[in-house]
Predict the 3D structure of the following.
Amino acid sequence: MSTPKSDHDTLWELIKGIRFGMLTHRHASGMLHAHPLTTQNQSLDEGGQLYFFISRKSELAHSLQQDGNVNVSYADPGDDSYVSLSGQAVIADDPDKKQELWSPIARAWFPAGVSDPDLALLEVRIHHAEYWDVKESKMVQLFKMAKAAITGEMPPRLGEHKELHIS
């Protein structure tokens, strides 16, 4: 008998194959800015942290020191799965974690390697998560939408939608 997936496992299953997350933060001007970042995690631990490498000299690093409230969103339109995560971002000074997460692809952005003084480890502590995951085929989705439009039974129930409070 298999054990049921935890909420953390479900979240990780939805985001692990998506190369970039869009991290949105509030700029000093008050406007919202979004940046595509590569998630460095190999899994999502029970603490609910996501890790990204960023430049210490970047506008993003400076803005996050003023206001660390962020949203990270992931989308896989091909699989009809969407995830929105809200939390607190901090620059983590953890050389062991940097080493653990380092990959040859990161060298393209930080040529001096894991000891590059410009390499900052951005840790996002997830507080709230929401996901939408549609399992039905496109044909079933279209049928449900057409049926709802014709019968007036709105909205059609497509897949799973769940909200999670992590911490």
Q: What stands out?
A: The longest helix spans residues 138-151. Residues 136-148 have pLDDT under 50 and may be disordered.
